[in-house]
Design goal:
Blueprint lengths: L2 E5 L2 H11 L5 E5 L14 E5 L8 H13 L7 E6 L1 H13 L5 E6 L2 H7 L7 E3 L2 E5 L7 E5 L8 H18 L1 H8 L8 H17 L14 H10 L6 H20 L3 H14 L11 H10 L7 E9 L2 E8 H9 L1
Parallel strand pairs: 1-8, 2-3, 2-4, 4-5, 5-8
Antiparallel strand pairs: 6-7, 9-10
Helix pairs in contact: 2-3, 4-5, 4-7, 5-6, 5-7, 5-9, 8-9, 9-10
The structure holds nicotinamide-adenine-dinucleotide (NAD).
The site of nicotinamide-adenine-dinucleotide has 28 residues, from α3, α4 and α5.
């Protein structure tokens, strides 16, 4: 596993990069970070790039490869990527394939990227066949978490990260779940972020290639992805997964006797975040079945889904497409 480095301020981040990264490296930054004025302080060459879910595609990968070739990077050089999950996924893929792979360090700048996207070695980009359909498993050299970067995040982007963190709580930690649902203000302590990262890393350590336990991280995502696609991405990933988890908690109660109290606590938490708690599907059953069949976890008429017996007690079971469609229609 790569090493995790925790820093409080961007001043510490600049020092870490200037002193710890070879001079020939290239830093690629999310253009949302221009406000931090890093360019006045880095000794290492660096470039800002504007990326988004809509441009998380091969064309942008080509641009990143171009930046790497025009900087004459060779296989002993490395890149440092500072950005949200989109930027990290794109640049990690580009680095893992450039001249058959060069080292990279990830500096996540959103809450979601800190607790999820920067850990576990998955990268990728979208194509006409769906989200993250092309990618590799390649671990970074290290992950540098700089908490000050969160200060400029828009509330909705922050809340999307909280949704992934509450999911980490659901599958692996009563402490994280309880701290989140009882927080006065939705902002959280850095300590909870570190604990959330630990949950993901512990799972990945046991099942790097996602043949078993790593699938637990998909809790809420089977129905979340259906919602995301049905809404044509007008709902963010976090908003869609937030509602997906409500449906999957309902299924957890039915199949594994999950206490209603857990569902109630979560629903109240979503109210506090001012996130939607329900969704009305717009597309036909055939359209939804088509999406389900494309799910990497699907068989011919069923899909593997993660359901909970309690907080921190996930189970992987197969449920029929018929049952799933019935649930989302009610
Ligand atoms: N590889 C994995 O294991 C993994 C896991 C989960 C999610 N993901 C991927 O992560 C992506 C979502 O990541 P995300 O939620 O970080 O979205 P994102 O990368 O789109 O970032 C959200 C917004 O915040 C901006 N931003 C980034 N840092 C900022 C900062 N410090 N201050 C202000 N604005 C900032 C970005 O420019 C963007 O507009 C998806 O593409 C998803 O597929 C990957």
């Amino acid at each position: 596993m790569p090493s995790n480095i925790y820093l409080n301020s961007t001043e510490e981040l600049i020092k870490y990069i200037n002193e710890g990264i070879p001079n020939e490296s290239l830093i690629i930054l999310d253009s949302a970070l221009e406000q931090f004025q890093f360019h006045n302080n880095f000794n290492v060459r660096h470039v800002y790039l504007q990326v988004s879910e809509e441009t998380k595609n091969l064309e942008t990968i080509e641009k990143i490869w171009d930046l790497m070739f025009s900087s004459n990077l060779n296989r002993s050089d490395e890149i440092v990527v500072i950005g949200g999950g989109v930027m990290l996924d794109l640049c990690s893929f580009a680095a893992s394939t450039y001249k058959r792979g060069i080292a990279f360090t990830l500096v996540p700048s959103t809450l979601l990227a800190m607790v999820d996207a920067s850990h576990g070695g998955k990268n990728g980009f979208n194509n006409a066949y769906g989200k993250n359909q092309i990618g590799t498993f390649t671990l970074p050299k290290s992950v540098v978490v700089c908490f000050e970067l969160l200060n400029t995040l828009k509330d909705n982007d922050y809340k999307d990260g909280l949704i992934e963190l509450v999911k980490h709580g659901f599958i692996g930690s009563k402490e994280i779940f309880n701290k989140l649902v009882s927080s006065e203000n939705f902002k959280i302590d850095n300590d909870i972020i570190k604990k959330g990262i630990q949950i993901k890393e512990d799972i990945v350590k046991e099942d790097y290639l996602e043949t078993g336990k790593r699938k637990y991280l998909n809790f809420g995502h089977t129905i979340g992805h259906l919602i995301e696609q049905d809404s044509k991405f007008t709902l963010s990933h976090g908003e869609a997964v937030a509602i997906g988890m409500i449906y999957e908690l309902g299924l957890s109660k039915k199949h594994f006797g999950l206490p209603q109290e857990v569902i109630d606590l979560y629903v109240t938490y979503l109210e506090k975040l001012e996130y939607k708690k329900s969704y009305k599907f717009e597309n036909s059953i055939d359209y939804l079945l088509g999406i389900l069949k494309d799910d990497k976890k699907s068989k011919s008429d069923s899909v593997d889904i993660v359901l909970l017996s309690d907080i921190s007690q996930p189970n992987l079971i197969s449920i029929s497409f018929d049952e799933l469609i019935e649930v989302i229609q009610n």
